[in-house]
Amino acid sequence: MNCPYGVRRESQKNMSLLQVRDLKTYFYTDAGVIKAVDRVSYDLKEGETLGLVGESGCGKSVGALSILRLIPNPPGKIVGGEAIFEGKDLLRISEDEIRQIRGNRIAMIFQEPMTSLNPVLTIGLQIAEALELHRGFDKKGARGEVARLLRMVGIPDAERRINDYPHQFSGGMCQRVMIAMGLSCNPKLLIADEPTTAVDVTIQAQLLEVIKELTSRLGTAVILITHNLGVVARHVNRMAVMYAGRMVEVGPSVEVYAHPRHPYTIGLLASVPRLDQPRKERLVPIDGQPPDLIHLPPGCPFLPRCSRRMERCSVEGPELREVGRDHMVSCWADID
Amino acid sequence: MTGQYIIRRLLIMIPVLFGISLIIFTIVRVIPGDPAVVLAGPHATKDVVDQVRVQLGLDQHPVKQYLLFIGNIFKGDLGASNRTGLPVTKEIMARLPYTLLLALASILVATVFGVTAGIIAGVKQNSKFDYLSMLIALFGLSMPVFWLGLMLMLLFSIKLGWFPSVGAESFKHLVLPAITLGANSTAIIARMTRSSMLEVIRLDYIRTARAKGLSEKVVISRHALKNALIPVVTVIGLQTGTLLGGAVLTEIVFAWPGIGRLLVEAILSRDYPVVQGVVLVVATMFIFVNLIVDILYSYLDPRIRYH
User: What is the pTM of this model?
Assistant: First the structure.
């Protein structure tokens, strides 16, 4: 199988920050092998924001956690592929080297802000840890920097709140703390795994604005994992759609929104209300259920739910192919 | 943690101890056997027995006896032993240091070995160390104390001659009883620590700590341990309470002069004042240990604040 992105002149011109190639992460359970991420490839340029979209269990989070090798092992294991970041293959460097990158060059924020912070340690200590580890701060100096970071993400009365514990913060505030922690070492890449799913709608918008504003100011690239297509439309340059552990469509978000080429992407977009189009009578759901990742059928995983199926689809699965400028899709059907 | 909270907890002790005194006062009198008969001896005439009963004040109405008992407590007087005639407080004070020493040594052994083994077993789940330590813990849980005591004595005192078998004269005398008494607690603490560690290590904030680039050592010692120890502290507290009051078998096997043995001797001779006194002292210590555990909690877990 060829690397679909391998020869693109585009990415060579615009300094590629992260190149993920044929990433495979499997989970070995008693019931069988779950191919949570299967031959996923994508590129990320410096400063770019990539939206990773798909329904629950499609492998978005696992794919992102794999880059930092944070998959719980056992049962999970990265079985193949590469993730080239600043010239190093993150999947092959030593444990010490990947630790140098975690929280420093690549930071991550998670879905549940309330449970992602340690309940028995102060906010200040938890942020200062990364500063002392990666930026050589001493305890005293770190304190001032923590206060600056907290102010940066919009936490009022930052100096006083350094000594507070996570339970003294609301969910939205905890996520701001996570953002401050994530950006504390000026990372080149921030992976935000559904950062707004657990907070209410008004807070969601605020948090996304904070992330967007700060990362563009710092020139940080972002992988924004979400199942919220509205978030993607508003905040990302490019979007990648995943289904059943595979990448089904990648492209500039404007392009994918306007001309989705994969039946799954088309289905996804038809199933959410849109303000930019005339109001329809009903939203159209995608029929059927996502497949069982242990017993994937041969050929295309989307086949049972697909409206454009062909004979070929049940025999061999399609690979990503270029269908437009920087726009790739893995489908045998030619959809315009 | 406020001083007010501690004062309130101390005040709550008063009704609790009243309840305990009433229960123990009733229970000793319900046990078959007459202290006067025991004390007077098997060949005493009825007149002698009656005389002894009057001496002991047991001819009085039970309510009056209880009120007298309570009234004396407030004066710091737990009565006099039926057997020796010595003040109960004196009898207890002579034995209590030995019990405290043994209990604290045991819980120290149990905490150090139990927590250490539990952490390693939890962090290295399914490793050889994990299997081996949990197997040993299973032995520790299921082995009768007197049997373990005898086996240790057989090996270390009689065969190897490293430690004395009985008595309480030196530090060396403490080693075998402390291990014997602490074995069970060690096993309980090790298993608790392991399962707590396993639970904590899967939580989101541990992933956050790893995502920060912290070394596994820091992740475990700073992020996992403090959280994992919260339930372990409860178990250690409960074990301490138990060890303080219930070292009877160990004390008998090693001829250790603690209050466990005093209690058994007192029960056998129906020495009501001593039984009541010992139970009250043990109960008081138990309540104090609980209070200390609760205070420790608030240091470990900032979400717990007492008002």
Answer: 0.79
